[in-house]
Design brief:
44% of the residues lie in helices and 21% in strands. By secondary structure, the chain is α+β, with helices and mostly antiparallel strands. Strand 2 and strand 3 form a beta hairpin.
Length: 112
């Protein structure tokens, strides 16, 4: 998953890095899923805003090649907002009994 996220950042910045348009969190999720779909095609699946048993929401859960990954997508809105995102991700990892998750930050005026 690290390689997928790293390559996404490179490709996206190559295509849209100089854009001056503001960026919406929902758009980032859609671009990520468009990028992810051909990678996991036939070997996995993803769930958007999956709901845990205690009624919390995660951004994207990916089942791929027998492994499960949780990816939290956030717009950058400062350190406090980022810390809340990390706490949410930590809770999701605990709930799914996973040790590692991923958080991709998107700049409010740029991409990833």
């Amino acid at each position: 998953m690290e390689v997928v996220l790293e390559r996404l950042v490179i490709h996206f910045n190559d295509l849209y890095g100089d854009s001056k348009k503001s960026f919406l969190e929902e758009a980032g999720r859609r671009y990520f899923l468009l990028y992810l779909k051909p990678i996991i095609n036939g070997t996995g699946n993803y769930y958007i805003e999956a709901q845990t048993r205690n009624m919390e929401h995660t951004d994207v859960i990916i089942d791929y090649n027998g492994e499960q990954f949780i990816v939290k997508l956030k717009l950058w809105r400062g350190d406090a907002y980022n810390e809340r995102g990390e706490e949410q991700l930590s809770g999701y990892l605990h709930h799914y009994h996973l040790k590692k998750g991923y958080m991709s930050l998107q700049l409010g005026t740029g991409y990833f």
